[in-house]
Amino acid sequence: MAVNRWARRARAGGLGAAVTVVVLALLVGANVLASKSTQAVDLTRGGLNTLAPQSVLAAHRLTSDLQVIGLFRAGAGNGQTEAEALVSLYAAQSSHVKYRRADVDADSVDVKRYAIKAPNTVVLDYRGKSELLTPGSQGEVDFTAALVTLESDRVPLVCWAIGDGERGLKDVNTSAGYSSVADILGHNSFSTRDVLISQVTAIPNDCDELAIVDPTVPLPAQSVKAVDDYLAAGGKLLVADEPWAKDARSTQALNSALKPYGVGFSGGLVIETNPSRHASGDPTVLAVSEYGSSPITRDIQGVASFFPLTTAITGTPGAGVSATRIATTSATSYAIAQPRPVAELGRKAEDVSGPFTIMETLEQPAGAKRTRIVIVGTAGFAENRTLLDANLELVLASFQWLAEQDSLISVPAKPSRAMPLPLTQQDQSTLIFITGVLMPGIMVFGGVMTWWRRRVFS
To answer: Is the Cα dihedral 394, 385, 189, 299 positive or negative?
Structure first.
């Protein structure tokens, strides 16, 4: 009986050892295969180490090698680790992405060739064209925007109306200036050109978009017709007005240009009585955090943007016009048609009840093209003082939507990316030895010792 019992234990021990060997062999094989694979799984909640679908698409569209050059200066906080980690994500999507690191103080050839003005700049060179990502503009949105620009045959041109008191892109006034809009457009691969709108009989053919922001004198009839003709041919327009215009005819002229689409500006000042829908202590500065469903608002839902001194958008879009109300007021808001002193802004019987639309988009087929219009009831939404956070996103996304770059708008903002752990070849060999040889060896040794002990003491 003792012999049979010992034999059964021996067979069980041998079977256990065999199973252990098989399992360990599988683990070692999996480790070896994993060490040779470039595939990765991102288990972070926010997908911090995964590119947005739009970025993946931009990488897949590469048909030639994209040379990425990191011209860094050694030192803490130079952004090199973050930039290279991001580049590696694009390289994982396309074999055309090639990265080269260089010392900005030693690589005079690249510095001169690409006219580098600041250290820690990343260069993207593709088919003879280049884009520079300066410090502070090296995130995923910046990289993907640069890719789209390099892959495109041309850069969208925004024609900016001037000459009739409109807000100008060269105005650096910290309050009402629009120079920040110029900076945003420049950093996101748009070009701009001023157009004396009152002197044109036709909007230039190379204008991808036209912006008319707060004219203080009425546009002449020929200019209104030029805008109408431009839109009818599939043009793109961003137009903003202000309440209580100095010359009511300026609002009327804008309404004439918008008449074919069934909308216009009321000209009255909107007052918001809901304290959660306006800036603290100022019911004339409207706050919006819930937006209409649009590519323009996809990434700012729940984030407040501000509309100072706003007029309402009125009318019903015409047949064939697709309209989206981007921003609206509460039901307790009201509009004051005629100017009156600040002390008398309280509601009166003649005031019009809300809610009101204060930002809206329109789209209509125009042959093989599409007419697109963004209408805003205030020029204040893009002033230097308000162009932060959601307002910045709202402005940039509006121009991108007009340029039919909808794919860029939906690249989501992410928290700071968790940086991958850089491993040298020696580090990788050590890790493979520990996980593939040492740890399994310890397990085998422990199993053998247990089996031997049972055999001896049974």
So the answer is: negative
- Nearest alpha-carbon partner for 250 in 241, 258, 259: 241
Name the strand (E) or helix (H) holding 74. Answer: none
Residue whose tokens read 């005031």: 351
CB-based contacts of 338, cutoff 8 Å, min separation 6: 244, 268
DSSP annotation of 281 reads T
Return the bridge partners of 71, or none. Answer: 102, 121
Tell me how far apart the alpha carbons of residues 210 and 194 are, in angstroms, rounded to a whole number. 10
Strand, helix or coil at 326? strand
Q: Which of 257, 317, 309 is nearest to 283 (CA)?
A: 309
CA–CA distance, 66 with 290 (Å, rounded to integer)? 40
Which ranges in 405-438 belong to alpha helices (H)?
A: 406-409, 425-433
How many CA atoms lie within 13 Å of 305's alpha carbon, on the beta-carbon side? 29
Sheet of 282-288, strands arranged across: 278-279, 282-288, 305-308
**Which segments of the chain have a pLDDT < 50?**
42-43, 45-46, 418-419
Per-residue pLDDT at 35 = 54
Identify whether the C-beta of residue 396 lies closer than 8 Å to the C-beta of residue 188.
yes
pLDDT of residue 46: 47
